[in-house]
UniProtKB/TrEMBL annotation:
It comes from the Eukaryota. Its main location: nucleus. This is Protein saal1. GO terms for cellular component: nucleus. Belongs to the SAAL1 family. It is found in: Nucleus. It comes from Prunus persica. Residues 16-26 have a biased composition (Basic and acidic residues).
Length: 517
């Protein structure tokens, strides 16, 4: 039975018209989500914003990759992010707008795009993109300019800008691909606009801006991004964000920018690293590590694990850069922090961080070998190193670094001069981790490297085990100590395994010898 259109409520009629027009949209454009998906109070219908974004897409976008990407350009100046600022200018096309705290200018902005926007809805005064079907639609570059300017003006309002924060994320995803990245770099002012977002006060916006900067510094176009970042004002802002943010995700993303800088091309490092070091990069990273370690030791918060990991990776990367490594390797607070992390009993949740800490300690001892004396008698530290082996089975560099540290420790152990109880403690630690040692020895990748550090470690383990066995044979009191050392079988097994894999005889070792491969 047909339904009389007049009997349908006005709101239902409008919804039906909206759905029809959504179905009439070009097939390559996604449908706008329902208004109720946006929990934002605004006088502008979110579907209208989406319709404007659609207008920026060429009608033949599905089969024509040569779009108008080089036409739409503008340079953003700092929007109103602090209530103490009287005005904050922003450019929209060739127009300069001022946003003030009293909202009067915001009304002027709204009035400005009345001319291009559809007529105000009669029932609630909001704008609906579905009602602009009778509007004369400009084409080509004129369309880009008109719809882009309207979006720009909308973004001057904080509430409306929240609807468009996704833009940075979209550009970040595009930047992961080589061709779109080249278009981004070639678009006049776009990188500068992204860099300007570092001065936003919105955490999510800052996260997306940092993510995009990280991608840029990791790309083949990294030099272009580095040149936009080289201002001391901008570098100071990045460090400030990392140091002062209370948002774990934002700390992670801002430190990732620093890591990408350290690991980028030599030219980028020459451009950005000296001013960053001058601004206190090394001390900042160590302070961040100190805070994360205090959090880890007091309360395990999973969302902070990635923060700890990226901080350690940044410090480790910095520890091998000529001209800058000394500030890292000579810092005793840092050495204490990473040793404490290695001694952490339960490493499963922070395994990657522990692996990085091991590599970092190896780098530090390479530059500061005397520090090994401070930990040569630290049995929990030795046990912690051996605990890391199962997590590093796929990381040849990490395993080599662990053997390097163990060698530096054990060459300082004088088993002939040790008390029986001290020797027993060393042997107990080694035997308790015999499975981890044997599993690593069964992997022949390090054998192929003819690892001097590993061979030295094995021969020192053999010497300790032999000394313990000899002391038991000479000391009849061992039969009166309650048991006959149930670990004897394990000691013999570990001894046989170490002997088998230590056929290479290294030159005479000294506590300060270099174990670099």
């Amino acid at each position: 039975m047909a339904v009389d259109a007049k009997s349908v409520p006005l709101e239902d009629q409008e919804e039906q018209e909206r759905q029809v027009q959504r179905h009439d949209a070009p097939a390559h454009n996604p449908s706008a989500p329902p208004d109720e998906f946006f929990d934002i109070s605004t006088t502008v219908d979110p579907s209208y914003v989406i319709s404007l974004i659609r207008k920026l897409l060429p009608a033949n976008a599905s089969n024509n990759h040569n779009s108008h990407g080089d036409v739409f350009y503008a340079h953003v100046q700092e929007l109103e992010t602090d209530h103490t600022d009287k005005t904050a200018p922003t450019l929209s096309g060739d127009r300069l707008l001022h946003v003030s705290n009293d909202g009067s200018e915001s009304m002027e902005i709204a009035d400005d795009f009345h001319k291009s926007a559809p007529e105000e809805r009669q029932n609630n005064g909001s704008y609906d993109g579905a009602e602009q079907c009778g509007h004369s639609v400009p084409v080509g570059e004129e369309a880009w300019e008109e719809y882009g300017c309207i979006l720009w003006d909308l973004a001057a309002s904080k509430t409306h800008a929240e609807l468009m924060e996704i833009t940075l994320g979209i550009i970040g995803n595009l930047a992961c691909h080589e061709v779109p990245m080249k278009h981004i770099v070639s678009t006049i002012g776009l990188i500068g606009t992204v860099v300007d977002q570092l001065f936003s006060e919105d955490a999510q916006c800052l996260c997306e801006a940092c993510r995009l900067l990280t991608v840029g510094l990791q790309s083949s176009e990294c030099i272009s991004w580095a040149k936009e970042l080289q201002s001391e004002h901008i570098l100071s802002r990045i460090l400030w964000i990392a140091e002062n943010s209370l948002n774990p995700q934002l700390i992670e993303k801002s430190v990732e920018v620093l890591l990408a800088t350290i690991e980028s091309s030599e030219e980028v490092v020459l451009i950005l690293l000296p001013p960053l070091m001058k601004l206190g990069l090394a001390s900042l990273l160590i302070n961040l590590l100190d805070f994360e370690m205090s959090q880890l030791l007091s309360e395990r918060v999973p969302e902070r694990y990635p923060v700890l990991d990226v901080i350690l990776r940044s410090i480790e990367a910095l520890s091998v850069i000529d001209g800058h490594s000394q500030e890292i390797c000579s810092n005793k607070d840092l050495f204490r922090l990473v040793c404490d992390l290695v001694k952490l009993p339960d490493k499963v949740e922070v395994a990657n961080s522990c692996i990085t800490a091991g590599v970092l300690i190896a780098n530090i001892l390479s530059d500061e070998p005397h520090l090994a004396s401070e930990i040569s008698q630290d049995l929990p530290f030795l046990q912690g190193l051996l605990d890391i082996f199962p997590f590093s089975s796929e990381d040849l560099e990490a395993r080599s670094a662990l053997w390097n540290i163990i060698a530096r420790l054990l060459v300082r152990v004088q088993e002939n001069e040790m008390s029986r109880s001290a020797l027993q403690q060393y042997v107990s630690v080694l035997v308790s981790k015999s499975d981890a040692i044997e599993d690593d020895l069964l992997d022949f990748q390090l054998d192929e490297l003819n690892s001097k550090a590993r061979t030295t470690s094995l021969r020192r383990i053999i010497s300790l085990l032999n000394q313990w066995t000899a002391s038991k044979d000479d000391d009849k009191e061992n039969e009166m100590m309650g048991n006959r050392y149930e670990d004897d079988i394990n000691i013999d097994r570990l001894l046989d395994c170490c002997c088998k894999h230590s056929e290479y005889v290294p030159p005479a070792v000294s506590p300060d010898m270099d174990f670099k491969e």
